[in-house]
Amino acid sequence: MQIISTYIRYLIASLILVSILTFYACQSFEPDKWEQNISNVGSSSSLKAIDLNADGVLDIVMGAGAMEFKQTEHGVIALDGIDGNMLWKVPARNQIVGSPIFQDVTGDGTPDVFIGGRSAILYAIDGKDGTVIWEYLKNDPSADYYNDTTILNFNGCQWINDINDDGIKELIAGYGGFVKAPPEQLDRPSGKLMIFSGKTGELIAQAAMPDRKESYTCPVIYRDNTGILDIIFGTGGENIDGSLYRVNLKEVLNDDISNAIKLASGNGKGFIAPPLITDVNLDGAQDVVINSVDGRLIAIDGTDNSELWIASLPGEFDSYTMPAYGQFTGNDDYPDFFVSNGVGPWPDTKHTIHSLIDGATGDVIFKDTLGSFQYASPLVLDYNDDGKDDVLLAINRKIKNKVGMSTMEFFGTELIVFPSGQENPISIYTPELGTNLGSTPLLQDIDGDNNLDLIYSLMSDPHKFYSFKNLKVVKTEFNLHPRNIKLGSYME
To answer: If DSSP codes are grouped into helix, strand and coil, which group holds residue 431?
Structure first.
């Protein structure tokens, strides 16, 4: 009954979309568009924008890769923001799954690119020409990068303060996850927090997880009102019990985080997606909001580490997305949260439940089933230009086409807006054949024309869900002011 209701509302929303498009057409708005296709790779890396060629237009950087455990010439790609043409590419021995961060470490005025991936790949890349400045482990023909249990993954990295006084911020990264371990193998290599010199890649510190469990989360920086810097990170996964922790940076620098404060338990699973840092209870201090693998949304007071609330749905989940925040319900100033959870255990996750959580109480006030499995995170903007926050989300679903006398099913992907985070979903981009696994789109005015740009990616293979080929990156534009963006990119 829920699914039938969803698609009835979906049909109504599509009619609404026709009216919206007619309105835009009357304004004689012609959106800037471009498209880039790369046949031999796919991606689950989220897109980021930075000006690499000094033309005043932000360019697009993302990780990519072939099927797991295969080398590729397109491990990291940079696309010209004007036309989508490739500026440079960097090869990789496995998939680059992290999202890029930027800092000029060469002193040439161009931001450089830092990004990580599977098989212990961590690159510092010259933003101007794609030359690798440094990397954590250079290719060694004698190394077994796919089966050696000491060679894990860099799933995300963040900047911290300049530790070695060279004028360049240092890099903290989460290192962990032995992906070849079968589900029944519970004894897995411990993850680590690692700190590197941003300028040279020198390893400054490393500390094993306090519970010696595997770890997939990108560590997140928490800075309190006094300037004290803590690191929030998680352990565990789909089959490994883990926890969410908080530790002071000084302890990481001492190579020992065994006394890290436990903020939440994984309840038999763990924490994979990074937390969101925002003021939930309006006390002036930042709080921690995280989506656990088992599908609970947990809010933790940043001042005393106490639990503010837990929102949960009945059922079994494997969840990999960050929540999005906005003003979606009630007449209060409390932020509310929109979250997507995969239903069913990995790798048999069949579909997704989207839900809206009242940030004042933790109550679930809306839920809907739309689309199959994906782990791209939601974004927030005022799409209807009515002064209210709306949710933008990439979804995957089955598309039925008639071929001769037969009806065939294909994989399709599209972009959906939930007005006010809870109203009838609107399809804002015609469904395309293919899938988007985990590449969160980008909302940003990359060309400075005061129109909101949307850049997103998909793998345009209609037959295989995990194809990792036929990567397509698309840039389009809305007749909306950039101020309509509330949350425009992954880990913003």
So the answer is: strand
| 340: nearest Cα among 440, 430, 223 | 440
**Running along the chain, 492 residues long, what does each successive block of 10 average in pLDDT?**
48 50 55 95 97 98 96 97 98 97 98 98 98 96 93 96 97 95 90 98 98 97 90 96 97 98 96 97 97 97 98 90 94 95 80 94 94 92 95 91 81 94 91 92 97 96 91 96 97 92
Q: How far apart are CA 353 and CA 367, in angstroms?
A: 7
pLDDT of residue 108: 97
Can you tell me the distance from the alpha carbon of 112 to that of 257, in angstroms, rounded to the nearest whole number? 30
Q: What pairs with residue 351 in β-bridges?
A: 343, 372
Range 360-368 contact pairs with CB under 8 angstroms and sequence separation of 24 or more: 360/330, 360/332, 360/334, 361/309, 362/297, 362/299, 362/308, 362/309, 362/310, 362/311, 363/311, 364/311, 364/312, 364/313, 365/329, 365/422, 366/421, 366/422, 367/313, 368/2, 368/6, 368/418, 368/425
User: DSSP readout, 4-34?
Assistant: HHHHHHHHHHHHHHHHHHHHHHHTT-----E
**Burial bucket for residue 113 (CB in 10 Å: 0-12, 13-18, 19+):** buried
What is the pTM assigned to this prediction? 0.92
- Residue among 409, 414, 327, 328 nearest 370 (CA): 414
3-state secondary structure 120-141: CEEEEECCCCCCEEEECCCCCC
Q: Which amino acid is at 370?
A: L
167 C-beta neighbours (distance < 10 Å), count: 10
CB count within 10 Å of CB 447 equals 17
Q: Measured between alpha carbons, how far is 330 from 361 in angstroms, rounded to an integer?
A: 11
The pLDDT, as a whole number, for residue 13 is 52
Count the Cβ atoms, other than its own, within 10 Å of residue 69.
16
CA distance 157 to 194: 9
* Spatial contact of 488 and 444, defined as CB atoms under 8 Å apart: yes
